[in-house]
Design a protein that fits this description.
Chain lengths: 292, 237, 338
């Protein structure tokens, strides 16, 4: 029983990583109705930027804020330059665009900072949290920041004018235009926000998985799975999904025989998909009624 | 009386298919005009062309300013509210959020709150349901909401696409009464596209009849209503 | 985050339809291309022949994906799994059972068909992004499954298996590469013609009805479940045959040769060629084989970035893939004729 509890708790800690990533994924999905496969790479790149700033002597929190601003602007720039032209192209072409972006960002990061693993500092320290052996202060900090972001996003979407405009543009773009909303800029804004959230995710994750260009590969998939599990329309679902995925991953690795590290991912995905077969809109998502 | 909207030689296309073949008409300020026609005649296309939602050529002028080249949202911001076919309600948002969205492009935040109160006065049923999800409202209520949302823009011109669609006759009568009131009291110029010719002609001052992308008849609503061809084709007697 | 309620959506199909008339090339163009395919190997070096063979093989795999996605509207990021299955089936039959290489191919196809059909059944409930995730899981699982200890005797574990390249039959005086090329070409043509006919047949129409509007299709009496699983099966089967051919051409199979990168490459091949346009499958295959090499020759350190940039250039210029180029060419020829 103790092993189970331990694994569940450990899963919640790693789940915080996925929750963070899943938030960024849901953010962008809300804005553009697609999943951006390059999101993880963009987060990694942002993290490298913050690392570089710190190498140049910038203190942690200034580097953090500066990176957020750069990521926000970068996200908007990428959308305007690379994806606005594809707005009228078919969905699959856009997906090819995401893949291309992935390749570019990963490659440039690799060349600029090479593939050796780097240490990344945490502002929360890594001592045991409240004496527990399973959750370090950093992991507690991760969970805290993720929940804070969630609250912030909730407030943004429910109580600000621009949040309302973004929701409208994502829900019914044509109707949104008919009330005077510039839907094109709402998409750009969504990208910017997703990019900033991704940066936060990367900065929180790097101390745990260590900083290197391929650090986000697995995280992104789990982030997607978490977002889908939670229901792509629900930030709360993304966070809950993230924690659940972390737990499932850990339990699968512990209890299912023969499952080494390599099979953890497909098994976790398989379990998530099983959930989706019964609840196609995810745990917190809205059931989509398709009208012919 | 000035012409609020001037449409000259409007041709509109869906891909390679031409839907409007040189439409010309104008709306004088303060008027309530109805555009009648059968299914597929081009009524909806006309409204969409005004808002630049479909590819078109020709000259459209609003308050003397040309609309060509402007994005839909910029046309709307000039003061043209468009209640589309099917209402375009934000079904997942509350009634109040829908009204707030109507005013989202306005800068005068204080008046928006008072305007919402005015909408509740025009449409009491909306006040009852203001925290409800718009998708749970009945058809008639959603139509009221759509009109209210359009009014939140404080538009100079309101375009309505088949507001009577799918609604019971009594509700349509109520709705049209409100439209008339808005036209007279709030001085909003209105263009109503309708298949339901009888009620529309009772409501409007002016009328146009459109067939296969061209205007075939225009004039005073009463005259059009008494016109024999119109009576046979659209009024059923 | 409002209370759970229903969203009513009238969705545009995620995969756009290719007009039936435009689904293949015209007769003259086809004959010209066929002639080129038949004659070129006589004039080029063995390595080029080998590359042409690979284009045909990958082209088959992309074609299979085109049937699945462009035909029946189901996304799959998991084709590498079926490719691997076919490859290993051929390799194991050739090396452990000493079966003739040609005979292994129909078996590889059948095994993959069965796998695809079996996968398609539970996948029925999934669509769009959910199906993509499920197939993604399949693709990532495959290399790991191939490395499993208890299968090692057959699969060769992490090192894989070496496959013997066949000689030309009946002692014909042509090299192995050239023979393999014509052998592959024959199979490719057969499958290509078969696929075109499939998409033109009643089943093909059923596929496309499902792709365009699943609910309407089912309301019209199309057995959606049966056709969707059939599409998965056929697609997997063709991919399996391609995998088998690939194993023979490359002369070995190993788990890390069939990763998610392969699945993503096949997907890109489909997009570049033009989704749903069967001839484009081979153009897409050429893209995914040659462009990464070109990228690496331009800049070794930034090869990924160069590839990404080239990909962007292609999708900016022709968002609908090579099919768009073909349409433009067709229009220009039409104008010249007048």
């Amino acid at each position: 029983m103790e092993l189970l509890t331990n694994q569940v708790l450990a899963g919640i800690s790693t789940g915080a990583i996925y929750a963070c990533m899943a938030l960024a994924v849901v953010m962008i999905y809300q804005a553009i109705d697609h999943l951006n496969f390059a999101q993880g790479e963009m987060a990694m790149f942002s993290t490298f930027i913050s690392w570089q700033l710190m190498q140049w002597g910038v203190p942690y929190w200034w580097a953090f804020l500066l990176t957020l601003a750069i990521s926000f602007a970068g996200g908007i720039l990428i959308e305007r330059l690379l994806f606005k032209p594809l707005a009228k192209a078919p969905v699959l072409t856009n997906v090819a665009g995401f893949i291309a972006l992935f390749a570019i960002v990963n490659s440039v990061a690799g060349l600029t900072w090479d593939f050796t693993i780097k240490q990344y500092p945490t502002p929360f320290g890594s001592s045991p949290f409240l004496g527990s052996q399973l959750i370090s202060t950093h992991q507690a900090g991760m969970i805290g920041v993720t929940l804070l972001m969630l609250a912030g996003l909730y407030f943004f979407f429910q109580f600000t004018r621009i949040g309302l405009a973004m929701r409208a543009a994502a829900a019914l773009p044509e109707s949104a235009r008919l009330v005077g909303i510039n839907t094109s800029w709402m998409i750009a804004l969504g990208w910017g926000m997703a990019s900033a959230i991704g940066a936060i995710a990367g900065i929180l994750i790097a101390p745990v998985v260590f900083l290197e260009p391929n650090m986000m590969g697995g995280v992104l998939i789990y982030g997607f799975a978490a977002a889908v599990l939670g229901g792509l329309t629900s930030p709360l679902g993304a966070v809950v999904g993230g924690f659940l995925v972390g737990v499932v991953e850990n339990l699968a690795g512990t209890y299912i025989p023969g499952v080494g590290n390599e099979l953890k991912l497909p098994i976790a995905l398989a379990l998530i998909i099983t959930v989706l077969v019964f609840k196609p809109a995810g745990l917190f998502g809205r059931a989509i009624v398709k009208r012919v | 009386m000035t012409q609020l909207l001037n449409v000259k030689d409007l041709r509109a296309y869906y891909g390679q298919v031409q839907a409007l073949h040189g439409l010309s008409f104008s709306l004088s300020e303060g008027s309530l005009t109805t555009l009648l026609g059968a299914n597929g005649a081009g009524k909806t296309t006309t409204l969409r062309a005004i808002c630049n939602m479909v590819r078109s050529t020709g000259a459209i002028e609003f308050e003397g300013k040309p609309l060509s080249g402007k994005s839909t949202e910029n046309v709307v911001r000039l003061g043209i509210a468009h209640v589309p076919q099917g209402r375009g309600t934000f079904t997942t948002m509350t009634v109040e959020e829908n009204l707030q969205l109507g005013a989202i492009s306005r800068k005068d935040k204080a008046s928006i709150v008072s305007d919402i109160e005015r909408m509740y006065a025009h449409f009491p049923v909306l006040k009852q349901r203001y925290t409800q999800q718009a998708g749970t409202l009945s058809g008639g209520e959603q139509q009221m909401l759509a009109v209210a949302r359009a009014l939140m823009l404080r538009p100079r011109l309101m375009l309505l696409d088949e507001p009577s669609f799918g609604l019971a006759p009594l509700i349509v009568r109520d709705l049209f009464k409100i439209l008339g009131k808005i036209n007279r009291e709030d001085k909003v110029t209105i263009l109503v596209v309708e298949q339901n010719a009888q009620l529309a002609l009772e409501l409007a001052d002016q009328a146009y009849v459109i067939e296969t992308g061209k205007i075939v008849m225009s004039g005073n609503a009463k005259e059009i209503a008494n016109n024999e061809d119109v009576r046979k084709s659209y009024l059923g007697y | 985050m409002s209370a759970a309620a229903e969203d009513v959506v009238t969705e545009a199909p995620a995969v756009e339809a290719v007009p039936k008339r435009a689904m293949t090339l015209g007769t003259t163009t086809s004959l010209v291309i066929l002639a080129a395919l038949l004659v070129t190997p006589l004039f080029v070096k063995n390595f080029i022949i080998f590359q042409m063979t690979m284009v045909l093989i990958y082209g088959l795999a992309v074609l299979a994906l085109n049937i699945l996605t462009g035909g029946s509207g189901q996304f799959s990021l998991g084709q590498s799994a079926f490719y691997a299955l076919g490859a290993y089936t051929s390799a194991i039959l050739m090396e452990h059972v000493n079966m003739n290489y040609a005979l292994t191919l129909p078996i590889a196809g059948l095994v993959s068909f069965a796998a695809g059909y079996l996968f398609g059944k539970p996948a029925l409930r999934l669509s769009g992004i959910y199906l993509a995730l499920a197939t993604f899981a399949l693709a990532t699982a495959m290399p790991q499954l191939l490395k499993l200890h208890f299968l090692e005797h057959w699969t060769g574990g992490v090192q894989g298996l070496v496959v013997t390249k066949p000689d030309a039959p009946f002692g014909l005086p042509i090299g192995q590469d050239m023979w393999l090329y014509y052998f592959t070409l024959a199979i490719t043509l057969a499958i290509y013609v078969g696929s075109v006919n499939l998409l033109r047949s009643r089943s093909g129409r059923a596929f496309m009805a499902i792709r365009d509007n699943e609910i309407a299709a089912s309301a019209m009496g199309v057995d959606v479940a049966q056709y969707k699983t059939l599409a998965f099966g056929v697609s997997a089967g063709i991919t399996g045959i391609a995998g088998g051919l690939g194993a023979i051409a490359v002369q070995f199979v190993a788990p890390d040769g069939y990763t998610i990168t392969l699945a993503i490459s096949l997907f890109l091949g489909m997009v570049v060629g033009g989704v749903g346009w069967l001839p484009g499958s081979f153009i897409g295959a050429a893209f995914i084989i040659f462009v990464p090499n070109i990228a690496e020759s331009i800049s070794k350190g930034l090869s990924g970035a160069v590839f990404g940039v080239l990909l962007f250039i292609v999708i900016f210029l022709v968002p609908h893939g090579a099919r768009q180029v073909a349409i433009i060419a067709q229009q220009m020829i039409g104008k010249l004729r007048k």
